[in-house]
Design goal:
This protein is of the alpha/beta class and 580 residues long. Helix content is 29%, strand content 15%. It has an 11-stranded mixed sheet, with helices on both faces. A hairpin with a 2-residue loop joins β1 (32-35) and β2.
Length: 580
């Protein structure tokens, strides 16, 4: 990824949309929809198989979170003053302001005024839209990932082309990130979870408006990837969401993961943030004074300061995330930890589809490929950061226990972790940050018989010619195989023209796309995923996972099998590790 990519994010989109209009410069023959906020005009686009669909981009669902609304709960937007809102995407909306610590070369990008969503729906004359169809369509509401600190809902990375070959409406949502979305003083001055509340407000917007787009307000599925998947899990634990969605899909993300655990002392973090920004008396101001001071800082300056939390580390340590809010705070989102809420069965009873890819942990181990200075001092820093990224057990024997379990002969490591140890680190991160939290959530769910809705599991184990490993480790030797890594399933769900080339029609990759998008849309429609031969998914036994895996057949490149990825030794080890 380079500066060229950043430019493309703001330049390519208008060109793509202009070409999708088939050379017709007139705005007369374009999609139009009216909702309670006013009327809007969209644009035409083409699905993976050439079907025409309607796109409405940059639709506001909240007031710009500026000034007094920075570090405050989102406020629904007022009706727009234009006679007709331009939702064509001709002038794309900026992403929420961010510094992507997973891809630091991108620099600071985006704006605070970012609370917009995109709506895509099949054209009624297309196969997916079905001519003269009167049946309302199910809706997928997608929450992007990015560690709560980065990410985009742009059609350049979350394009609807692959889903629009199905009878489904897609809504992609932006939400505040980093400090803007998650800074908290632990009290009413800035209660926190603003990014999660942005997502909640977007779900309310969908409930109020999706029928105008031909959607069924009673068939809404909230879907997210990585931190977006954890966000979906958290939205399930917020009782105020009752009725806003009827299904949930978490792709490679879980709210019981250490990187999603609520910050123990958010006020201290807010004061340290203020200190990094040069605010005087940062540790003496009242929380109200502190928040007022933070509201006066330029957004870019704010984001640049995040580097101060990493101490030069290449590891993408997630600084900001969910917090537990005092129950006295108006409209609190999270009043206990996710682990406590989930273990008590305090969540919405909706069918949940969730799963992983084999090497999700690579997103955290990839930065080690960039480390060239290898010394005992480097190794000490690496080991400290390893525990921090894992959510860090504080006992003195935690690290030796970890290395003994995964490395055995520690002397074989040498002076520090190098590219030779990437696979070991990937396994550690994969199990501790993805597999274990998922396994824990499934086991605890089975203990609550009053929770009727089942959990359905999947494992995406298909390896294609493209991989996000080329994004996470762009300078690496192309011959090195990192397996199927974090985000790789997204290649087959969303079009990302800024990152990967398009699939040829009827190619093996296009067939895989057809299989996984059908799985997601069928689940959105029915709340059920295919199961194997071992009975009910909601039984007390650990459920089988639907696995998509490579075959050797050109006409059927992906096989649908069933597997049980429950690993008792893994589960017991991490249970002990996190009990320290």
């Amino acid at each position: 990824m380079s500066a060229r990519v950043v430019v493309l994010l703001t330049v390519v989109l208008p060109v793509a949309i202009a070409s999708s209009r088939a050379g017709n410069p007139s705005v007369q023959n374009v999609p139009r929809v009216c909702i309670r906020d006013g009327c809007m005009r969209g644009s035409w686009m083409r699905s993976l198989h050439g079907e025409r669909y309607e796109a409405f981009m940059g639709v506001p669902f909240a007031k710009p979170p500026l000034g007094a609304l920075r570090f405050a709960n989102p406020v629904p937007n007022e009706p727009w003053t234009e006679q007709e809102l331009d939702a064509s995407g001709r002038i794309p909306r900026a992403p929420c302001v961010q510094l992507n610590l997973f891809l630091p070369e991108r620099g600071v990008e985006g704006k605070e005024d970012c609370l917009y969503l995109n709506v895509y729906r099949p054209y009624k004359g297309s196969k997916a839209g079905a001519e003269n169809a009167t049946e309302p369509l199910p809706t997928l509401v997608y929450i992007h990932g990015g560690g709560f600190l980065a990410g985009y809902n742009s059609p350049l990375v979350a394009g609807a082309e692959k889903l629009m070959d199905h009878k489904v409406i897609l809504v992609t949502v932006a939400y505040r990130l980093g400090a803007f979305g998650f800074l908290s003083t632990g009290d009413a001055a800035a209660s926190g979870n603003f990014g999660l509340k942005d997502q909640r407000l977007a779900l309310r917007w969908v409930q109020q408006n999706i029928e105008a787009f031909g959607g069924d307000a009673r068939l809404v599925t909230v879907m997210g990837h990585s931190a977006g998947g954890a966000s979906v899990h958290l939205q399930m634990m917020h009782r105020g969401n009752e009725g806003l969605f009827q299904r949930a899909i978490s792709l490679s993300g879980n709210a019981l993961a250490p990187w999603c655990a609520p910050r123990a002392n958010p006020e201290q973090l807010a004061r340290r943030q203020a200190d990094l920004l040069g605010i005087k008396e940062a540790y003496r101001l009242s929380t109200a004074e502190l928040v007022e001071s933070l509201r006066s800082v330029e957004a870019d300056q704010f984001v640049y300061s995040y580097k101060g939390f990493t101490n030069g580390s290449r590891y993408p340590v997630i600084v900001y995330g969910p917090v537990v809010e005092p129950s006295s705070v108006p409209d609190a989102f999270l009043t206990d930890t996710p682990k406590e809420l989930w273990s008590r069965g305090e969540h919405l009873s909706v069918p949940w589809l969730t799963g992983i890819v084999p090497n999700d942990g690579f997103v955290f181990s990839a930065p080690i490929l960039k480390d060239t200075d290898c010394s005992k001092e480097t190794f000490a820093q690496q080991k400290t950061l390893l525990l921090n990224v894992l959510g860090g057990a504080k006992q003195s024997d935690a690290l030796p226990t970890l290395l003994e379990h995964y490395v055995k002969n520690q002397s074989a490591i040498g002076e520090c972790f190098t590219r030779d140890h990437v696979n070991i680190l990937t396994k550690i991160f994969n199990e501790g940050l993805f597999e274990y939290p998922l396994t824990l959530s499934v086991r605890q769910h089975a203990n609550h018989t009053r929770t009727k809705a089942p959990i359905h599991l999947y494992k995406f184990n298909y390896r294609g010619p493209h991989s996000y490993s080329s994004i996470f480790a762009p300078d690496n030797e192309p011959t090195q195989d990192f397996g199927i890594v974090h985000c790789d399933e997204l290649i087959y769900i969303f079009r990302a023209p800024i990152l990967f080339p398009d699939f040829r029609r009827n190619s093996p990759d296009a067939m895989v796309t057809k299989r996984i998008t059908k799985l997601l849309v069928d689940f959105a429609q029915t709340g059920v995923a295919p199961t194997g031969t071992n009975g009910e998914v909601s039984s007390s036994e650990f459920p089988e996972a639907l696995e998509l895996v490579n075959s050797n057949r050109m006409d059927e490149p992906v096989l649908q099998t069933y597997t049980n990825f429950y690993d008792e030794d893994m589960f017991n080890f991490w249970t002990r590790f996190y009990s320290y």
